[in-house]
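Comment thread on ticket #2218

A.B. wrote:
> Attaching the input chain for the structure job we discussed in standup.
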Amino acid sequence: MMKIAPQEDGLIDVDQTRQALQELVENHDGKSDDFKLRGKILALFKERLGQGRKKAEEMLFEDGSGILCAIRLSYLEDCLIRLIYDFATTYVYRVVNPSDSEKMTVIAVGGYGRATLGPQSDIDLLFLLPYKQTAWGESVVEYILYMLWDLGQKVGHSTRTLDDCVRLSKTDMTIRTALLEARPICGEQPLYDSLIERYDKEVMQDSGSEFMTAKLAERDARHTQQGNSRYMVEPNVKEGKGGLRDLHSLFWIGQYVYRVRKGKELIEAGVFTAKEYSRFKRTNDFLWTVRCHLHFLTRRAEERLSFDLQRELAGRMGYASRPGQHSVERFMKHYFLVAKEVGDLTRIFCAALEEDFGRQAPGINRFFSSIPFRRRRKIRGQQDFVIEHGRLTIMDDEVFKRDPVNLIRIFAVADKENLAFHPDAMQLIRRSLRLITRVVRKDKEANRLFVKILTSRRDPESILRRMNEAGVLGRFVPEFGKIVAMMQFNMYHHYTVDEHLLRSVGILSEIEKRNLGEEHPLSHELIRKLDDRVVLYMAVFLHDIAKGRPEDHSIAGAKVARGLCPRFGLSREQTEQVAWLVQEHLTMSTISQSRDLADRKTILDFCHSVQTMEQMKMLLILTVCDIKAVGPDVWNGWKGQLLRTLYYEAEPILTGGHSKTSRDARLAHMKEQFVAKLEGWSKKEVKSYLDLHYPAYWLRTDMDSALEHAELIRSADKKGQSIAVSIKTLEFEAITQITILAPDHPRLLSMIAGACSAAGANIMDALIFTTTDGRALDTIFISREFEEDKDERRRANRIVDLLTQVLKGETRLPPLVAQKEKHKKRYRAFRRTPKVTLNNELSNQATVIEISGLDRPGLLSDLTRALSALNLDIASAHIITYGERVVDSFYVTDLTGAKITNVDRKQAIEETLLAALKGKTTKSQPV
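C.D. wrote:
> Ran it. Output below, let me know if you need it in another format.
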């Protein structure tokens, strides 16, 4: 058993507790089975358990060691179980002369068997019997379990004989793994010894390859279930990639195949160096620290670092804010660096396994490559690298010392030859990182090779990711090193900053290889016409390089680009282009989503910023890569359509052509395509329908949506329906689209938003159109709730039913909103300063109200209701949600169609909307 430090005895006084138990029995005239006595015993154990856990939490705050806390809690549990067992066998079910069948051993298995226990972890117990169960054994087991359950503990348990354990271990890998860490708590020691002896001889013998293959497959399945990335912004500390379970898996395999019982024995086995084992212990301790704090904080077996817990954990663990980085972001960066180290240790460990057992367990080889074993062969033009077993490796251990540029060159060779890395090469790379000095960073050949890797036409993302995982990328580009494992504390970004940048490069590469044509047709077309692809790749790689700094990351990033690009060999003109793209990388997405693209002033202002067609082409592709790399549910076809519309509106102005002519031509082309796709429509119906929409509709609507709208309106007209609704579920984008056709009304958007809020639906975006006959055609995008499409459609139908009732006046909205609207717990973790601005310079026809702040259910309903109460006419609305942050833009006029210019009225509007943003009301806003 693991040794316990002397100070841990302060968790519980075993002798005093045993004496207290004896006194309780004596005070009940020795009637140990008395019901009242059991209640007092239970109260005593509850008191000791509570005191011990409290002490363990205090000690965690004192020394900050999670592994020590886990050991202490395991020790506390051991003491309680021994006390319960001793009491049961001494007082309740005492046997004076026990036979061989009336013996048992209580054994800790699984995680508890490692002598580590989280504050709310399950207690996994094996009640080991020499032979079949007896009445005595059954009674003792039942007494122990009921006492633990009554203490509020979660107990996983099994009662088995020696033969059962051996037999089941041979066929059940879960049982085999649990027994691997079996540890005796109390009872018959010889019985435990017999189990270990038989387990070793009859189960473990000659089954190492089977166990390794099963554990690696189990790990892969777990990673897939958890998102298959160690850089998810709400990671699972136990089960996620780079979490505790990965370390446990390594140790399980190490115990099994190297026959070790202690971690440090892996050094003697040649698996880890002393330094690497020190990293193993350090990462294990940090993850246990996070897990113990998480359990203590939530008072439950919570393993997921959700947003609403991250800030509190950062405070508990002593992280402080720094300029440009909140305390929670510093804490999470530390977490992701540790998760990255777990990945490094996994590769080192598997390299040792492959070296020692690869031929016996081919399943290990897939961790590195599927290429079969082949003899060592040379690479043409390379003296320092060779191919071994189908993978790139080093000629000898001195290759990086002889020429440190080889630390970059090896990745360029891997890219050129399309080779995976041999584990020996990766191990030596990590051990040689100190050779990447200022001299290497300034070396022309090293920088030329890096740019070649970045702009590769093969798979630059994979090579850059291997460089990052090996630590080379952060050393060679220190500015990149600063954002490695950096988390952005918001619900919008799904990955760390470095992971986001690498994914962006990968998406750019896929666009250039013409693999994303259906999603990004314009980007596919434009990338072939670029004058300089190097500039674009560099801008994509650097666009978020300055995250975490006090100043605006776009402006700071441009400064970083101006410093780095000359080092990479770019010309002055190329450097300025990269710097401009980095500084403006948010411009196109912001304008396309938050501005009225039918307003000529919007387009002219955008053209003034962009200046040239070449810059607009690159900016559009950069914008696509940026949005798409944020997360799997961020990009959607509507955002693509808005970007294309902005591009096409700006193109004739930037090329010196006539905007009006081009616009008319595009309108005509859109209508021609639309008409060609209609089926079963008469010429009269077609003409009437084309006249139904204003030009803005045709410019902002994609073809599929236009055809769906046409069928919706045509069907409603034939049936004489004043209100019609259609539903479209978008599984990949995790969005459900609801289109509403209804008589136009100043409060229509407010009613729609209120109905959605009442139904518990969160509006992500909204698109508003008015037809020439006085009807509104509004499309709202709500976040998806169910994975299955049929379930999501049922939910959408319920929303539509409520919405229809509200629009027909059959249901009063305010009570429903008040009843349903609740703050989501995870939103409370974020702090966003509410802001309202009125701008008369962004449009020639309307006042643009920009509203930003913390999103919440019912916010859009409150804002639109406030605008209606202020007698403002909403010409267009642009709803953007960046995770927990909402940025809404409303183009409004007064009831006469004029802008809002009166200073007092502008101030009243700002105050009213600020109050609505905060969930309050003002005198100018009726309740």
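A.B. wrote:
> Thanks. Noting for the ticket: Residues 1-7, 359-374, 818-823, 922-927 have pLDDT under 50 and may be disordered.
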